[in-house]
Amino acid sequence: MDDVLFRDEVFAIQGAIFDVNREMGSGFLEAVYQECLAKEFELRNIPFSQHKTVSLTYKGQALTQTYQPDFICYEAIILELKVCQEISSAHRAQILNYLKATKLRLGLLINFGTHPKAQIERFVL
Description:
The chain has about 120 residues and is α+β, with helices and mostly antiparallel strands. The chain contains 3 helices and 7 strands. It is globular and about 45 Å long. The model has no long low-confidence stretch (mean pLDDT about 95). InterPro entries: GxxExxY (IPR026350).
């Protein structure tokens, strides 16, 4: 288990996610879970940034298009939130592209739309 990337950090993030899920349940809009999760990260002293603008490049040239992941925690882990019945291949492709663009290695795709608990998928690049 020692080779698991950011094991302790992910454990802390998962605890925050499950607390939000326990408190709020499923059925709210993504923005509600985003706000609740930010509050929970603050309570737990988990370092994070929200909607941080990330620049993109094409063949070494900067693009005017940017993207903003829902969270970057510990300056190393991308979190993308969803509220849907089922995670799709497009959602998975989105987080993989975010990892490639940022050159970060770990992403968590969190779905608050599943009952009774949130679904978390881990992506390592």
